[in-house]
Amino acid sequence: MRKTTAWRAAAVAAAALLTATACGTQRGHDDQDTAAGGACKGQQTTGITDKTITLGGIYPLSGPASAYGTISKGVAAYFRYVDDKGGIDGRKVRFIVRDDGYQPPKAVEEARRLVEQEKVFAVFQTLGTPSTAAVWDYLNQQKVPQPFVATGASAWGTDAKHPWTIGWQPSYVAEARVYAKYLKEARPKARVAVLYQNDDFGKDLLGGFEKAVAGSGIKVVAKESYEVTDPSVSAQMASLARSRADVLLDVTTPKFGSQALAADARNTRWNPLHIVNNVASSTAVLQPVGFKNVQGVVSATYFKDPADPRWANDPEMKTYTSALHKYAPDADPANQFNAYGWAVASSLHQALDTMKCPTREGLRDAVRHLKDVKVGLLLPGVTMSTGPGDAFPLETMQLMRFKGQRWQLFGKPVDTRKEFGPPAE
Amino acid sequence: MSVVTDLLQQVVEGLGSGAVYASLALALVLIHRFTGIVNFAQGELAMLSTYVAWQLVASGMPFWLALPVTLAVSFAGGMLVERLVIRPVQGAPELTVVIVTVGLFIFVNALAGLVWSFTVKDFPQPFPDGGLYLAGVRLDWSTLGMIAVVAVVMGLLYLLFQHTSIGLVMRAVAGNPASARLSGIRVGRVLMLGWGLAATVGAVSGVLVAPVLFLEPNMMGGVLVYAFAAATLGGFDSPVGAVVGGLFVGVAETLTGAYVDVIGADLKVGVPLVIILAVLLVRPQGLFGRAAVERA
């Protein structure tokens, strides 16, 4: 972090000097494509002109995680909608989507192509922790912004060596804290069993939860992990049932989420409060288990569910629905991933609007100086904030409980930074 | 819950996953008996059959009608795969055939993803919900039903292998295709039959496990490793061995995961690999298999 601050101080000083001496020089006199003028002199302008801005996204359009690929449709629909309204600060958006099949080596290859051949201004977004971690060294070496990556790993916010990369959605640690706070209030003596995926995602959330409940009356009494290659988690669920814990924290990805919910429903002698993490909370996970088997399950979220009739008259939701029909007719507006894409794209739009310089450096700094930025599709009370020492745009989530055929929000939005302080590394 | 019921419950869970492995191991054994090759795509073909069944049920067909239709489609599909994909490389070194089946694995997996997407599908459970409690140990009807079906399939295969003329013919084909052809056996037909039957047994396996594992294109990928361990342990030419091997692998995996702290759930995926290695070192033909005798 210190390194960044020093760099920034130097940049500010240099900028001040330049404005004093070279005021009025609108364009850098060297290579017009790689340098800006005025206070922004010396900064990179690759991929951005007065008329256009080029962005590249890498998503799993094929392969095991391809259900997430539709996020790119929500993003693309947003940019086309904005283009028709005059673009982002007069610039039309060129959004190039590439497929990595959820394979990190492929993500690296695509990132290189986007940067070196397509000359993108920024890589927006990479999806998934493995792919993002695979490309962030390269993008940071090349000084290419990698804003709002589509993964909740806390590393994007705690790491000081990658200033060009930043997350967007609440981190897994923030999510764990929301559950911890809820249990402290609702079940202060809870004995918790945890099922988690044995990778960075699972360990991040589990670690965050254990830290957040440390010193309280809540105890983690059993932990079982699984590999993504395991056929099923039923053996793990049987082991957890032995603990007779009264809460089950279910940190799984979609298929295993379905399996764990079904195993819980099958075992009529063990009925813990089942908390399923956001990653496995979509209706596509719950529906195969049978809605009658998942009543009362608890989870947390931060953006408006397009399938929830509560938002039917929400202005931004209406814009989103009609724009999606128009610009992405093959995408289902009720799919939460499309809404996610729309929300993150409009978040980027707002960050681009606050850039002091229309340069890569300008974007890098803008996403780290967001102040209570409101985004239409985020839940009321959830805003984007970053600043020195805070590289987590979203840290507020609200709890929800499954009732009937859909999730119902309950309680107040929980600002995890306010409640627990900044997440430690 | 006492320590003993606890242990028994874990054993029951192990038998449940063991039945899953055994069902696919049966298909592996069958195709190996018929054609002498190990089919890496067996799990994916089973997954594809399960999607066929799912599609039929989703379009309104009752489950008990969809099942025989699926089995028939799978039988035909298996024969077709043999004729179109495997026949051209027949007679090539074993490695070539194995690599073709690996290619088939990847192709079928991607195809299913393309057609049905990677979203999890729910598959109707043919057995009733719930279960019974025996001395404090919970037995799901689905687990019992699965073990029963696997036992029946095993019995049928045993009869086919040992007490029918086609069993004799296919042993001849697997043992020495050239001599078999010279003595008037239509080798191509036998091989097609082998692939068809294996695909049918695989379809039974897929339909059995889908309600528990949830249907998606990677459903059988994890199962295949365990099924290989089961078939290796029991012997690649013995249906009884496949089932015993499957149940053993399932129980061993569950118990080591639950009681051996060093292994825990993190390392239990290593259990089948250790079993495969140990069997290959100590008794390569497996527990129930017959050692291949080759003329020097």
From TrEMBL, chain A:
Gene3D superfamilies, sorted:
3.40.50.2300
SUPFAM superfamilies cross-referenced by the UniProt entry: Periplasmic binding protein-like I
Leucine-binding protein domain: from which residue to which, for each copy?
52-403
Q: Which residues cross the membrane?
A: none
What is the official name of this protein in its record? ABC transporter substrate-binding protein
Which keywords, in A-to-Z order, does the entry hold? Signal
**Which family is annotated?**
Belongs to the leucine-binding protein family.
Q: Where is the signal peptide?
A: 1-24
Automatic annotation (TrEMBL), chain B:
Membrane topology note: Multi-pass membrane protein
**What is one GO biological process annotated to this record?**
amino acid transport
Q: Which residues cross the membrane?
A: 12-31, 63-85, 97-119, 139-161, 190-214, 226-251, 258-282
Q: What is its main location?
A: membrane
Keyword line: Amino-acid transport, Cell membrane, Membrane, Transmembrane, Transmembrane helix, Transport
Tree of life domain: Bacteria
List, alphabetically, the GO terms of the cellular component aspect: plasma membrane
Give the location in the cell.
Cell membrane
Matching entries from InterPro entries are given as: ABC_transp_permease (IPR001851), BCAA_transport_permease (IPR052157)
**Pfam families referenced in this protein's UniProt entry, alphabetically:** BPD_transp_2
The answer to whether keyword Transport applies is yes
The record's GO molecular-function terms, alphabetically, read: transmembrane transporter activity
Entry similarity comment: Belongs to the binding-protein-dependent transport system permease family. LivHM subfamily.
The identity of this protein, by name, is Branched-chain amino acid ABC transporter permease
Which taxonomic lineage is given here?
Bacteria, Bacillati, Actinomycetota, Actinomycetes, Kitasatosporales
